[in-house]
């Protein structure tokens, strides 16, 4: 964990690079006094909000703190499940205007009717 | 007199605060400044030994604060620099023997006599550290290029900021150029990027420091040592001179330079850096 930059590439980081990346993460936590439990709560909350609109691969969701260019950043990595990118219309609490599209929106490889 | 009170601190122990204080103090005195170095590590005094003044101590900082002696009586004159003085810490008392108000008053007193007051802070973030920074108008943080030290340095930066002091400057100590070159150690730029503070100097790891401490003569006297040069340059930067950073990583070994001259250099450089066995 913490060496995101190198996860994608085949290049293995040097110990110096590992130290730097680990430090960035640990310092981001230290500075904000953010503990792993709180981060987990944030992760769950973001996931629950985004899941209402997008099918997210829950096992691959990563929410991490990072330190870039002198500022703290919260990075959420939420891969969308390709097979069924489906948007279920969640009716709002108020009565929508006439010009708002009603019904279910499917965004799939094989596009269904947009009723 | 617009004298400067500079506290040398680190959070983590053993990174070179005392060595840095002794060397910067000596270097500033060598450049004609009137300097007092103050050992803030009550109960664990060492600055006296690094300066080779350990057997001249009669009174100490706590004696001064408690009014058992006058300030002048406790100040020990350096062996070689006529304008360098040491105010030693008490050895048989604990860190809480002095409070912040007393320490601030002491700094005020010293400012009237000296151009520079250098305070060697104890490790940690407790009372001893708070005492060390209370009277300071500049902070120098000493860190080594490794995880624990840089992490603690970051914590100190936060505390210094919270205390309303100006942004500290960094002395990156004990850098091992060969390890940096191999990719096994963080480089100067890595640490600066992570900490985000101004650099005051880089001191390479050097056996000469141990030799110097054994003798009780700060390394800065010997310009041939790379650590001595590093400290001298840092002191010149304190005095406002624009001294470019010596490239300790490239100017490493004679052997390396010979190789490069003989044409093996390019082949060596193309080699990928040594990777860790486990990530």
TrEMBL record, chain A:
UniProt KW keywords: Cell cycle, Cell division
Gene: minE
Function: Prevents the cell division inhibition by proteins MinC and MinD at internal division sites while permitting inhibition at polar sites. This ensures cell division at the proper site by restricting the formation of a division septum at the midpoint of the long axis of the cell.
Annotated protein name in UniProt: Cell division topological specificity factor
Origin: domain of life: Bacteria
SUPFAM superfamilies according to UniProt: Cell division protein MinE topological specificity domain
Family: Belongs to the MinE family.
Entry keyword annotation includes Cell division: yes
Gene Ontology BP annotations: cell division; regulation of division septum assembly
Pfam families: MinE
The species this protein was found in: Dictyobacter arantiisoli
Automatic annotation (TrEMBL), chain B:
GO MF, any single term: ATP hydrolysis activity
One GO CC term on file: cytosol
Binding site for ATP: 12-19
Keywords: ATP-binding, Cell cycle, Cell division, Nucleotide-binding, Septation
Chain ranges of the CobQ/CobB/MinD/ParA nucleotide binding domain: 6-218
GO biological process: division septum assembly; negative regulation of cell division
Record Pfam families: CbiA
Keyword Cell cycle recorded: yes
CDD domains linked: MinD
Superkingdom as given in the UniProt entry: Bacteria
Function per UniProt: ATPase required for the correct placement of the division site. Cell division inhibitors MinC and MinD act in concert to form an inhibitor capable of blocking formation of the polar Z ring septums. Rapidly oscillates between the poles of the cell to destabilize FtsZ filaments that have formed before they mature into polar Z rings.
Family, as annotated: Belongs to the ParA family. MinD subfamily.
PANTHER family: SEPTUM SITE-DETERMINING PROTEIN MIND HOMOLOG, CHLOROPLASTIC, SEPTUM SITE-DETERMINING PROTEIN MIND HOMOLOG, CHLOROPLASTIC-RELATED
NCBIfam families recorded: minD_bact
Name of this protein: Septum site-determining protein MinD
């Amino acid at each position: 964990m913490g060496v995101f930059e190198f996860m994608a590439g085949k290049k293995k980081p040097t110990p110096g690079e590992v130290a730097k990346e680990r430090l960035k993460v640990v310092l981001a936590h230290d500075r904000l006094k953010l503990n792993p439990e709180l981060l987990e709560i944030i992760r769950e909350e973001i996931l629950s909000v985004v899941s209402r609109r997008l099918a997210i691969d829950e096992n691959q969701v990563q929410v991490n703190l990072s330190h870039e260019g002198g500022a703290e950043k919260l990075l959420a990595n939420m891969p969308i499940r390709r097979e069924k990118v489906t948007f279920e219309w969640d009716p709002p609490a108020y009565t929508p205007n006439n010009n708002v599209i009603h019904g279910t929106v499917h965004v799939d490889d094989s596009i269904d009717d947009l009723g | 007199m617009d004298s400067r009170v500079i506290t040398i601190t680190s959070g983590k122990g053993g990174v070179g605060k005392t060595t840095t204080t002794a060397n910067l103090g000596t270097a500033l005195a060598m450049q004609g400044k009137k300097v007092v170095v103050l050992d803030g590590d009550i109960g664990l005094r060492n600055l006296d030994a690094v300066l080779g003044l350990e057997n001249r101590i009669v009174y100490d900082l706590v004696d001064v604060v408690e009014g058992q002696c006058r300030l002048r009586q406790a100040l020990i004159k350096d062996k070689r620099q006529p304008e360098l003085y040491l105010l030693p810490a008490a050895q048989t008392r604990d860190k809480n023997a002095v409070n912040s108000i007393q320490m601030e008053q002491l700094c005020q007193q010293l400012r009237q006599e000296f151009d520079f007051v250098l305070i060697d802070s104890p490790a940690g973030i407790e009372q001893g550290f708070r005492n060390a920074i209370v009277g300071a108008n500049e902070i120098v943080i000493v860190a080594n290029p490794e995880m624990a030290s840089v992490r603690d340095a970051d914590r100190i930066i936060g505390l210094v900021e919270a205390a309303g002091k100006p942004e500290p400057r960094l002395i990156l100590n004990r850098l091992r150029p060969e390890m940096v070159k191999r990719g096994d150690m963080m480089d100067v730029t890595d640490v600066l990027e992570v900490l985000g503070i101004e650099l005051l100097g880089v001191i390479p790891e050097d056996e000469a420091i141990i030799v110097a401490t054994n003798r009780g003569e700060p390394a800065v006297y010997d310009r041939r040592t790379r650590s001595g040069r590093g400290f001298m340059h840092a002191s010149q930067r304190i005095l406002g001179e624009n001294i470019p950073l010596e490239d300790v990583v490239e100017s490493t070994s004679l052997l390396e330079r010979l190789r490069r001259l003989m044409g093996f250099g390019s082949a060596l450089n193309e080699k990928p850096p040594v990777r860790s066995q486990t990530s």
